[in-house]
């Protein structure tokens, strides 16, 4: 029989669903980040089973992603000294505008840019810098002026277990 008449079901013509991409490199986290990942896994594990197969597949893929992130999480060392590192808050000037942000792990970063993942281009430009240093960014030498660096205590508090 011709292949044209052998169609088993409609699913074979759907676009393939790929796994959620994992960021390259180590999965460095702060204690806060580890707790956020663990909470996300628990939330997905406790979610009621969806009746819709697409929703069930989406939840299952998300659960695989977050379980992998939890299993591969490595606690970043607590920053010592005054250099920008994971878990520090940095105040800096870029293009004449002063900003403050916290450098975090990938999964701790937020959309409003108060927390930025350590592999983001801006974070990479800041890492290792100290107050008074200048760093290149966006193809410009000394585009960033680091004004202040401090440990972001909110990232290093051990989560409360209840």
Automatic annotation (TrEMBL):
Q: Where is this region: Disordered?
A: 1-29
* UniProt-recorded name of the protein: GreA/GreB family elongation factor
**Which species does the entry assign this protein to?**
Sphingomonas morindae
**Any one GO molecular function term:** translation elongation factor activity
Domain Transcription elongation factor GreA/GreB C-terminal: residue ranges: 82-149
The record's InterPro entries line, in alphabetical order, gives: GreA/GreB_C_sf, Tscrpt_elong_fac_GreA/B_C
Q: Where is the composition biased (Basic and acidic residues)?
A: 1-18
Highest rank taxon of the organism: Bacteria
| The keyword Coiled coil is assigned to this record | no
């Amino acid at each position: 029989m011709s292949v044209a008449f052998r169609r088993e079901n409609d699913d074979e013509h759907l676009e393939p669903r790929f796994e959620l991409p994992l960021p390259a490199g180590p999965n460095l986290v702060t204690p806060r980040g580890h707790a956020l990942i663990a909470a996300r896994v628990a939330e997905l594990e406790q979610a009621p089973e969806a009746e819709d197969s697409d929703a069930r597949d989406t939840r299952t893929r998300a659960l695989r992603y977050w379980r992998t992130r939890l299993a591969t999480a490595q606690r970043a060392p607590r920053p010592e000294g005054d250099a920008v590192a994971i878990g520090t808050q940095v105040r800096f000037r870029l293009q004449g505008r002063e900003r403050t942000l916290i450098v975090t792990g990938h999964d701790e970063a937020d959309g409003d840019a108060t927390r930025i993942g350590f592999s983001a281009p801006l974070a990479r430009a800041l890492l290792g810098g100290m107050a008074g240093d200048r760093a290149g960014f966006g193809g410009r030498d000394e585009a960033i002026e680091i004004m202040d660096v401090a440990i972001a205590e909110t990232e290093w508090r051990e989560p409360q277990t209840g």
